[in-house]
Write a structure and sequence with these properties.
alpha+beta, Translation Initiation Factor IF3, four-stranded mixed beta sheet, about 35% helix, elongated
Length: about 110
């Protein structure tokens, strides 16, 4: 499955547009990760635990999109967009990862 943020596939001919596909996942950051992250921010360095959690959430989101596209008979997703939103409020430090694009069939 080809995933691209562009609207075309280089050296490929799109023969059918199958429709919109989406994927979502949530990351709930717990207090221990928050405390560790705060210490890292003061001392310096990267907060690798958050990066790992974001990567997992992104993978879940994209795999969900790929499954949906395959069910539609597509072999690529074009116009891919990924968004990260902190829901905050009553959701605490919950981060929503969303992605969408157009499932297509190419030759």
């Amino acid at each position: 499955m080809i995933l691209t943020s562009s609207s075309t596939l280089e050296n490929k001919k799109i023969i059918d547009y199958r429709g919109l596909v989406t994927g979502e996942s949530l990351i709930g950051a717990n207090i221990y990760k928050d405390l560790f992250s705060g210490v890292r921010d003061v001392v310096g360095g990267r907060t690798s635990r958050y990066e790992e959690e974001l990567q997992k959430a992104r993978d879940i989101t994209l795999n969900s999109m790929i499954e949906k596209a395959e069910q539609m008979g597509a072999n690529a997703i074009v116009g891919l967009k990924i968004s990260y939103d902190n829901l905050g409020g009553t959701m605490g430090n919950t981060i929503l990862v969303t992605a969408y694009g157009t499932a297509v069939k190419y030759e």
